[in-house]
Amino acid sequence: MNAILPALLGPLAALSEGAHHDTDLTGSAVGLAAVVVFVFAYLLVVAEDVIHLRKSKPVLIAAGVIWILTAIGMNDPETIAHRVEQHVAEFAELFLFLMVAMTYISAIAHRNVFFKLNALLVNAGFGLRAIFWTTGALAFMISPIADNLTTALLMGAVVTTVGRGNTRFISLACINVVIAANAGGAFSPFGDITTLMVWQAGHVPTLVFLDLVPAALVNWLVPAILMSLAVPAVRPQAVTEDVELKPGWLMVMLMFLATIATAVCFHAVLHLPPFLGMTTGLGYYMLWGYWTRLNARRYQMAEPVDVFDDVAKVEWDTLLFFFGVLMCVGGLSELGYLAVTSEALYTGHGPTNANIAVGLISAVVDNVPVMFAVLSMDPVMGATPAAEIHQWLLATLAAGVGGSLLSVGSAAGVALMGTTGGEYTFMRHLVWTPAILLGYAASIGVHQLLNMPAASVLAGGG
């Protein structure tokens, strides 16, 4: 899945120490069986709207079966146990980051902040199309700073509140938010995990990532223009009742901002995993809840805050789906599929075609292990430093925005599927995949055009 902030970097760094193993079971019976299991589970996820089977169930079972097959194929208990621990560590950091973000979103919603914003937008005369463009633009601008997952959750909450009852608008606006958040995160080291991985590896200087802004903007605008034509040209019904913000709304908002700032500082200043900053920020909320309980008993104030009520409202199906997918991909990686695929792409098809393919693969398979496989292989991207940077930027762009092609291709998409109550689904997203693919191709073209000197040097250098 695309862009899970820097939450996975710690385990990935550890994983790199033992990543270069020679296991290649891609042609074996266990390897082929693992692929069949993964594909079957993925088809069940795709059919969730039809069969009404929650998406976490097939991938959880598939993850267990794939690791059974991996253990049988590798026949090395000590190594396999170590590998499992490393992949679980990846999910643990993602889980803690997501759990805190979703808890704060729940707390903010509980205090009517999104309903109040809905009333302000509607009563100010904003139509659904204006809201469609506003939420998309905000997602594009905020995600480079706050990361695309958190941004998508915030904008998704606004969309579902404003458009409640209008499934067509909610699904279109959520697709727009996912595309915009993924595109915005692609040109910032802190907006997308794959961007951060490339930056940490030293392949692209910090400010050079800004060269991706035009391509990222095109990636969002092309499908957004097409989708906006399908947005109902109506105004939401005016909010006649006075929406009251519940006590503590401002404090919760400030604590959420402080939590995001803490996570960024933990990584940028102290070089600690960002999830630790998020869990520290959850501690802010828990201490405040303790203070409200004390005052409620002493001064008979309003109802005290119970933080665990908000924790209980976290979308656990989404979190377990993440776990299942990461473990499935982890097992396939240990069987050698990602390494073999990366080798085949960069050796047989050249860096430009390979990098474009990386984005397409990221729509189906989590882009984090895909990019990690590329970084581990460290292919020759070009004949000159300029050509190398150009191709690494292309790989970053493709991996960052390729996940927008499917709802399950990015963390932003999966998170919104879990928080919109069935209004935004895989099939509704799939209808617009051709438009998103057009935006993907256009963004690749813009990047190639704006970096023509580097691309020409690369072509000349073979």
From TrEMBL:
Gene Ontology molecular function, alphabetical: antiporter activity
Main subcellular location of this protein, as a coarse class: membrane
Record membrane topology: Multi-pass membrane protein
Pfam families on file: CitMHS (PF03600)
GO process annotations (BP): sodium ion transport
Compartments in which it is found: Membrane
Protein name, entry field: Na(+)/H(+) antiporter NhaD
